[in-house]
């Protein structure tokens, strides 16, 4: 009996010591210092390279470790607590929020920008004006050859290429344009937005689908380089109407048809570095960086000037 008592008290002491300060150290990060892991949709790597550099230059005791991954992987990182903040172009679904809330976690979603899905073709392709319905027929397989769009075209079979199977671009077009119906066999994915540009540049029959941020920043050498390799497709919503490309002003007015919002989703609901970085991006300085990148900031106005 005495031995059982000793064992009992030993277990109690072990349990109490496991709850002590040494087992769960106090957080070492603040809104402007420490370290934090974030995952950003690869669509926005150019933008967030700039955001992180600007933030760390102001707060030199802060270190943001970033990974650029497809949307589907970013969500898994957030769910598994492998990162505190993700950047994707949609909010969490009701089911995703319920999964967090079942563990007493309440992620905070902050809308930071508007962007768009862009479509590009080879520089020698003269078919640069589409309608949403024409694009739908290309992606679902009703139209399979460039000659069905222009009888004079000799480009042959249309190969449509996305950046990644798990990307936000593929998910957005699949849901918004095809209504969840499958893509045709002539639609496939590479591994990244830059690979989309490379494929289209090397294949005259290609139609590339990528995030507009890769071609939207006139000051960025990567964006300028990509624009020399491809042509951007414009869209008209009715036959004979004006065609709109994914320029900043037309994203703002929604005259370009494939626009969407960009969110930062933070599961670090205390006042840590994750929350501090989200606040920076959503604040005046971060929103100015978004404006200069060619996207639409969530809070800052955009002036639209018509040049005649």
Describe what this molecule looks like in 3D.
- There is one protein chain.
- By secondary structure, this protein is of the alpha/beta class.
- The chain folds into two domains: 28-114 and 261-297, D-Maltodextrin-Binding Protein, domain 2 (3-Layer(aba) Sandwich); 115-259, D-Maltodextrin-Binding Protein, domain 2, CATH 3.40.190.10.
- The chain contains eleven helices and twelve strands.
- The protein has helices at residues 2-18, 45-58, 71-79, 94-101, 132-140, 168-176, 193-202, 221-227, 248-253, 273-282, 284-292, and strands at 34-41, 62-69, 85-88, 108-121, 129-130, 159-162, 187-189, 206-211, 231-232, 234-235, 259-266, 296-297.
- Strands 1, 2, 3, 4, 6, 7, 8, 9, 11 and 12 form a ten-stranded mixed beta sheet that branches. A two-stranded parallel sheet has the order 5-10.
- The protein is elongated and about 70 Å long.
- Mean pLDDT is 89; it is low at 1-23 and 304-308.
Q: Briefly, what is this?
A:
The chain is of the alpha/beta class and 308 residues long. The chain is 35% helix and 20% strand.
């Amino acid at each position: 009996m005495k031995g059982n008592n000793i064992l009992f008290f030993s277990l109690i002491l072990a349990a109490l010591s496991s709850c002590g300060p040494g087992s769960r150290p106090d957080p070492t990060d603040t809104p402007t210092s420490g370290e934090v892991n974030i995952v950003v949709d690869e669509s926005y790597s150019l933008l967030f390279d700039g955001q992180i550099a600007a933030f760390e230059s102001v707060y030199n005791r802060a270190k943001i470790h970033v990974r650029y991954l497809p949307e589907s992987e970013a969500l898994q990182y957030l769910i598994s607590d492998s990162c505190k903040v993700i950047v994707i172009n949609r909010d969490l679904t009701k089911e995703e929020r319920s999964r967090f809330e079942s563990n007493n976690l309440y992620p905070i979603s902050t809308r930071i920008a508007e962007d768009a899905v862009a479509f590009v073709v080879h520089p020698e392709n003269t078919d640069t004006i589409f309608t949403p319905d024409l694009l739908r027929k290309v992606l679902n397989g009703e139209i399979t050859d460039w000659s069905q769009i222009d009888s004079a075209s000799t480009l042959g079979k249309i190969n449509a290429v996305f950046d990644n199977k798990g990307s936000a671009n593929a998910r957005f077009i699949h849901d918004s344009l095809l209504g969840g119906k499958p893509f045709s066999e002539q639609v496939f994915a590479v591994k990244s937005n830059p690979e989309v540009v490379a494929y289209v540049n090397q294949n005259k029959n290609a139609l590339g689908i990528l995030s507009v941020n890769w071609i939207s920043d006139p000051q960025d050498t990567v964006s300028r380089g990509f624009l020399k390799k491809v042509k951007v497709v414009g869209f008209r919503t009715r036959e004979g109407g004006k065609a709109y490309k994914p320029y900043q002003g037309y994203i703002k007015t929604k005259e370009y048809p494939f626009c969407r919002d960009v969110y930062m989703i933070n599961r670090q609901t205390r006042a840590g570095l994750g929350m501090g970085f989200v606040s920076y991006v959503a604040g005046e300085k971060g929103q100015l960086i978004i404006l200069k990148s060619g996207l639409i900031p969530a809070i800052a106005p955009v002036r639209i000037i018509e040049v005649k």
